[in-house]
Amino acid sequence: MAVTFLATCVAAVNLVPVRWFGRVLPGLDNPVAFLPGSAIAASPLLAIDGTEVFDPDGEILILTVSIDSNLDLLEWLRATTDESVELHSREVVFGNRSDDEQRQHNRRQMSSSIDSATIVALERLGFDVADFTGVAFAEVIGDGPAAGQLEAGEVIRAINGEPTNTIASLRAVLAELQPGAIAVLSVESLDGASQRDVEITLGSHPDNGGPFIGLAGITERIEEQPLPFDVDLNLGAVGGPSAGLAFTLILLDVLTPGELTGGKRVAVTGSIRVDESVGDVGGIAQKAVAARQAGAELIIVPEAALDEARKGAGDVAVVGVSTLDDALQALSDLGGEPLQSLQQN
């Protein structure tokens, strides 16, 4: 009887969410587990109507990470000894968002990521599907040079009269200036309804010492043009921005003749910006495990995540990339064919 009672108590404890133990056991306060997710063959989920498509022999796999935010004690204990699982605090992963708010946030990120990936792919193929009209920013750093003078959501159109329609052009203009220089920023509201000039004294960037405005969350304002054909990617419940680079490569592969992957299975993760740069994403080690388990022959990840990806990749080759060109070069090195222009076919 005593053994049965003890077993029943242990089983009951294991069913209790581990966050309930957080007040008495350090490290158990709202843990969230990152586990290996899936490697999704995306081309079957892609629908293109209005132009010719070229079904690939190879496959680009979109990688996901599984997130468990309601661990019981037994699951937590397993996670602490499983090298393929990472534990994070809920605050780091979710911020102040509820589970439902986080899902909505992830869906918005995915939608934005697909839009950016589509723009990047079609612009690379010679279509004019977006006009870049300035650099927007989501945050003014509290102690930075622009504090109290610029407002989050505004768009920088020019600096000292030099157009800054893209992030690259803004950086090029700043590169000609020095910390301490006076810069006149021509800014307007996101909807273009109001405009003004703001004079600031450039600071020194804390990382590289270059000229510094003091902004965060920088993006390009884009005026999208109608697409030349219909493009749709149905990823179901998958959220977040990390499928961006993969979707760009999938589009380039199916819209052009030849085999970008050389007929191989290539797993890809990383966000994509409209300037064709690749952004870092989370859960890289777990995604690498998913890629390995799916039989990927190459894993492409953001450059900054290369070491982390190798932890879960096993014997599978991993390449870190910073730009779309880097990713295309990695496919070429694997035996893929060069990208061809859609408009020439």
What does the model show?
- By secondary structure, the protein is an alpha+beta fold.
- It folds into two domains: 29-128 and 226-338, Ribosomal Protein S5, domain 2, CATH 3.30.230; 130-224, Roll (Pdz3 Domain), CATH 2.30.42.
- Helices cover 30% and strands 28% of the residues.
- The strands form five sheets. It has a six-stranded mixed sheet, sandwiched between helices. Strands 5, 6, 7, 8, 9 and 12 form a six-stranded antiparallel sheet that branches. The protein has a two-stranded antiparallel ribbon with strand order 2-13.
- Helix 4 runs parallel beside helix 6.
- The model is unreliable at 5-16 and 20-28 (pLDDT under 50).
List keywords for this structure.
345 residues, alpha+beta, Ribosomal Protein S5, domain 2, Pdz3 Domain, 2 domains, six-stranded mixed β-sheet, six-stranded antiparallel β-sheet, 9 helices, globular
Unreliable segments (pLDDT under 50, ≥5 consecutive)?
5-16, 20-28
As a percent range, the share of helical residues equals 25-40%
Q: What number is the mean pLDDT?
A: 83
The count of domains is: 2
Oligomer, anyone?
single chain
Q: What is the number of E strands?
A: 18
Q: From N to C, what is the helix and strand string?
A: HEEEHEHHEEEHEEEEEEHEEEHEHEH
Q: How would you sum up the major sheet?
A: 6 strands, mixed
Within the largest sheet, what's the order of strands? 4-1-3-14-17-18
Question: In CATH terms, what is the architecture of the largest domain?
Answer: 2-Layer Sandwich
Structural class: alpha+beta
Number of helices: 9
N-to-C CA distance:
79 Å
Q: What is the top-level CATH class of the largest domain? A: Alpha Beta
Categorize the overall geometry.
globular
β-sheet strand percentage = 25-35%
Query: And the CATH topology of the largest domain?
Result: Ribosomal Protein S5, domain 2
Tell me the radius of gyration.
23 Å
